[in-house]
Design a protein that fits this description.
- By secondary structure, the chain is an all-alpha fold.
- The N and C termini lie far apart (59 Å).
- Helix 3 runs antiparallel to helix 4.
- The longest helix is centred in the middle third of the chain and has 26 residues.
Amino acid sequence: MKRTAREPETVPRIPDHRPDAAAPAPARASRVPWASVAVLLGLAANLALCLRRSGGDRGAAAFVVFSHLNLLLLLLSLRRFERSPPGSPSRGRARIAVWVLTASLTAAFTWKVAALLPLALVAAAWVMAAATAGGGFYMLFFLDEK
């Protein structure tokens, strides 16, 4: 007795609604990035609350304004870095901006924290800040993009 291969059952095909890779991408409607808007509104509210709590101390107010502006510029630079094509000059400029803003924000927070610590811990805090900035520099400029 000869065995025959079993015929596959006929299954109805579901039409593929995925766009063809060769077809041009449709024009996207302008969408509001709600997550970004929420983050920026939260940052603005935090800035207002911090300035109110500073109680007229100009040094504290300057630190708060610097930190918030630095963070805002960092977020914008990160967005520009992520959207620029690999290897482009704009990506290189965004990479430099990201590192400078990150290192300056790290230095500002370390300076503020160091004012509260004993000398031995101040040195440790600055060593950790330098290691963080150096590690960020290495990651951004010496590792290959993947």
